[in-house]
Amino acid sequence: MIDGKTRTCGLIGNPVEHTMSPIIHNTLAKMCGHNLVYVPFPVEEGKVEEAVKGAYALNILGMNVTVPYKSEVLGSLVEVDELAAKIGAVNTLVRTEGGYKGYNTDITGLHRAMMSEDIRMEGEEILLLGAGGASRAAAYLCGAQKAKKVYLLNRTIEKAQRLTEEVNEAFQREIFEPMLLSDFPKLPERKFLAIQGTSVGLAPHDGEAVIEDAAFYRRIHTGFDLIYKPFDTRFMQLVREAGGKAYNGLKMLLYQGIIAYELWNQVEISENDASLVYEKMRQTMGV
Fold first, then answer.
1. pLDDT tens, position by position, for the chain (287 residues)?
2. Which of 64, 191, 227, 268 has its CA 20 to 30 A from that of 108?
3. Residues linked to residue 180 through DSSP beta bridges, in sequence order
4. Are 62 and 90 contacting, i.e. CB atoms less than 8 angstroms apart?
5. What is the DSSP string of 62-101?
6. What's the sign of the alpha-carbon dihedral 164, 166, 167, 170?
7. Which of left, alpha, beta for 60 (phi over 0: left; psi -120 to 50: alpha)?
C-alpha cells in the first residue's frame, strides 16, 4: 500500500515504456516487505541533468539509467564507482550525500547471470561479437575475470580495434584481439565460449544472427546472447544445432536489477528469491 512513508525508485531513459524493470523491483519490494514503489520516467533529450537534480530534490531513493543516457548521466553525478568510471557508463544511481553515486550493474549482473549457469570466464578463450555498448560491458567483465584470450569480432575492424586498445590498456594485459566477423575461419581450431553482444536478433531482425555460417557455431561450446527478447534467438538456435549450450540475456537483466535493489536498500537477495522473480519475468513475457 502506498502511503506517506513510501520510498520511490525509478528508471530514466528514452524510451522506457516497454521496460521490465518495474516487475523486478516491485516484486522484490513485496517479497522483502519494503514500502517502496518503482516507476519509469521518460526523459527528453537534453534533460538528463535536470532529471537527476529533480530526482534528488524529490528524495528519490535510487534510479536506473537506460539508453541513451548511460554515458551522458556521468556529468550529473557526485561520485562514480571505479569500474563504472573505467567503462564510461552507469546504469544505477544510488542516493548519497549531496547527489547520486553511479554504478554499472550491467557488468556485475552479467557476471552473476553467467555464474548462475556455471559459466566461468577465468582461463577461457572467448569470442565476443560486437563492439557497441553491450559488448563494452562484456569486454570489461572478460578482463576483470581474467579471461585467457578474447577475440573481438565486429563488422568494422576500426571499432573493434578501438575497443581492443581501450580494454588492453585498462587491464594492462594484451588479451584482446580485434577481428572482422567475416574472418572467423582464421580462429584457432578449438571450442570457445561465445558472447553475442550485437543488436542482430532484436526485432525487426529477430530471425537473424550476426553470423549464419554453421562452421562458426561448431567452434562454440557455450553461447550467451545478451538479447532476451525474443527468448530464443537465432544465435542460440544455431549454437544448439551445432551441439553447444545456449543462454539468453534475461538473467543478466534480472541480476542487474537485483544488484541495484541491493545497493539502494542495503540488503542481500537470496538465489531462491531471484528465481521467483525470474519466473515472474518469464510469465510476463509468456515464455
1. 899 999 999 999 999 999 999 999 999 999 999 999 999 999 999 999 999 999 999 999 999 999 999 999 999 999 999 989 989 999 999 999 999 999 999 999 999 999 999 999 999 999 999 999 899 999 999 999 999 999 999 999 999 999 999 999 999 999 999 999 999 999 999 999 999 999 999 988 899 999 999 999 999 999 999 999 999 999 999 999 999 999 999 999 999 999 999 999 999 999 999 999 999 999 999 99
2. 191
3. 154
4. no
5. EEEE-TT-TTGGGGG-SEE-HHHHHHT---EEEEETTEEE
6. positive
7. beta
Short-list 23, 16, 34, CA closest to 280: 23
Distance CA 78, CA 250 (A): 31
Looking at 53, 70, 101, 245, which residue is catalytic?
70
* Known active-site residue 70: yes
Instruction: In whole angstroms, give the CA distance from residue 109 to residue 86.
Output: 17
- Retrieve residue 206's grid coordinates: 529477430
CB 193 within 8 A of CB 222: yes
Mode of pairing for the β-strands spanning 99-103 and 7-13:
unpaired
pTM higher than 0.90 for the full model? yes
Residue 188's SS3 state is: coil
